[in-house]
Amino acid sequence: MTAWQALTDFFKRYTRFIGTSSRSAFNWIVWFWGVIYLIVAVLIIVVAGLGVFFGKHGDTATDTTPFLGTIILVALSVMVLSIIVIIPNLALYARRLHDMGFSGWWQIVPMIVNATITLIIIFFTNNNEQFYWLQSTISLVFALWLSFSKSKPNSPYS
To answer: DSSP 3-state assignment of 22?
Structure first.
């Protein structure tokens, strides 16, 4: 499956939680959204860096409100994009799990683990910044498992 076919399939079957999605279709979409979010993160860093640079190195101390506004606009755009693609992503993960011979409900396990870790961090630790890498690691391991696991030919979900 090509990248364009995977992207069109992603949006055509955005609410379809039945059936299967191939490993290549899953990988194309994960890489696509990963690159999009990486570009947005770099854009935020560049805009914030320019704001700090020009605010401190200009002739006079400038107001950084326009740069902060740009960062907020980009962050809100990412949040809206995430909300738009959350259902298609859940459907894609369910179809990929079906392709591997598992129930689509298995995608809830990393969500529950991440929510539990977040609650533990919030209520039982003083240094919250120390454990934030853990949620990302769990999500990354789950995505890598879906990316590299083989399809099951006679899946009951086919």
So the answer is: coil
Contact 97, 17 (CB under 8 A): no
Convert the pLDDT of each residue in 42-95 to its tens digit.
Answer: 877 777 776 666 655 545 555 556 666 667 777 788 788 889 889 999 999 999
The two tokens of residue 1 are 């499956």
CB-based contact 91:17 (threshold 8 Å): yes
Token pair listed for 56: 């401190």
Give CA separation, 15 vs 22, 39, 76, 90, 93, in Å: 17, 27, 24, 9, 12
Predicted TM-score (pTM) of this structure: 0.77
| Gap between the Cα atoms of 1 and 49, Å rounded | 39
Q: What is the pLDDT of residue 58?
A: 47
